[in-house]
Design a protein that fits this description.
Blueprint lengths: L16 E3 L5 E3 L8 E6 L6 H12 L1 H5 L3 E6 L4 H10 L6 E3 L4 H6 L4 E3 L13 E3 L2 E5 L5 E6 L9 H14 L10 H4 L2
Parallel strand pairs: 3-4, 4-5
Antiparallel strand pairs: 1-2, 3-8, 6-7, 8-9
């Protein structure tokens, strides 16, 4: 597999197109959020921490909408597993995408793990799957914020994300971490 190349704030994020469990195709290029789009990559139906995270997002979706933020949650799961996640985790409001290719996951800077068998919930992990990441994207398709994990733990909490969005919107706070020029780093 290719090397992970990080995405940088203020630069365009990769194209993204995935089917959703509601039968539509979700395209990043079609999204027109008022303030931000939050793309949440989750590990898959096998992950109990993902269950908790997505339920919390689902329960707080109106808090995000009131701030002009739309959300997509997606994984490399197939349609059946994505539907099981929606139904068994009782996700009533989130848009759930599935079928993320591992190559596309790499484009987004996600880490890939191999199966270790069944999780604590008794669900078999896929042979390969992406680890979690959260990306807050500006309406113009540029990255504002990213958090990428190498394992299921230590993800930003919903309250922290909402608090950050409130601060950013109130203070017109810019995206940070944008320096890419290596010459600037060696000065």
């Amino acid at each position: 597999m290719s090397q992970i190349i990080p995405l940088f704030p203020r630069q365009m994020v990769p194209a993204l197109e995935v089917p959703t469990v509601n039968g539509n195709v979700w395209r990043l290029s079609d999204q027109k959020p008022e303030n931000f789009l939050l793309v949440v990559f989750y590990r898959g139906y096998h992950c109990p921490i993902c269950s908790k995270q997505l339920r919390e997002l689902d329960n707080r979706l109106e808090d995000f909408r009131s701030r002009g933020v739309s959300i997509l949650a997606l994984s490399s799961d197939n349609e059946e597993r994505a539907r099981m996640a929606r139904d068994n985790w009782r996700l009533e409001h989130l848009t759930i995408g599935y079928g993320l290719s591992l190559g596309k996951a790499r484009e987004w800077g996600l880490y890939i793990s191999s199966s270790r068998g069944k999780t604590s919930t008794g669900v078999e992990e896929p042979a390969l799957f992406s680890e979690p990441g959260q990306f807050l994207i500006n309406p113009d398709g540029t990255l504002f914020f990213a958090s990428v994990q190498t394992m299921p733990f230590a993800r930003p909490h919903v309250e922290d994300i909402l608090g950050a969005i409130d601060y950013v919107l109130k203070n017109n706070y810019p995206a940070r971490g944008e320096v890419v020029d290596h010459n600037q780093l060696n000065a």
